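Weekly structure sync - notes
Attendees: PM, LS, DV (DV joined late)
Agenda: review two folding runs queued last week.

Item 1: First target. Sequence and structure tokens pasted below for the record.
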Amino acid sequence: MSVRCQVTGKKPGYGNQVSHSHHKTRRRWLPNMQTKRYWLPSENRWIRLRVSTKGMKTIEKRGIDAVVADMRTRGERF
């Protein structure tokens, strides 16, 4: 399963971990991903989304129906 938010599209960030001696190794910063179930009242069913915590705040602010409508226009599957 990919580490990508279905609502916001957040993905891992890449870069270098720099030690005290300035030795560099590659690393990645993962978004805070959660699997959450939402009740979709317009379709009278539950949907399961893999969202970041920022995506959860977006759903709380805009509403699940508006977010699902945007996801459908982008072609996102859930």
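Item 2: Second target, run right after the first with the same settings.
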Amino acid sequence: MLYSYFVYIVTNQNKTTLYVGVTNNIQKRISQHYFDSEHVKKSFAGKYNCYYLVYYEGFEDINQAILREKEIKKWRREKKDKLISEFNPQWEFLNHQIF
């Protein structure tokens, strides 16, 4: 199934910082995080070099995607780690899967 919207989690190289976001174009958004990390460092993801995709969920409805993003953002780090580990046990960088 093709999805129109995605909730995603990116991390830095050492997997010490997580960023949760929502987008309608995951490839473009990851590229924006990468560019910001390498150049301007204006966003949270840019400042902490978070552009390595470790988790994503697809949605057809933007409202459902936004609700899920807000839900995950409220979680403690341990709960986010568990979500990622259930989806991606080795915490592999999944950027190549979306390009």
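Discussion on item 2: Helices lie at 26-38, 44-47, 62-74, 77-87, 95-98.
Action: LS to circulate a short write-up before next sync.
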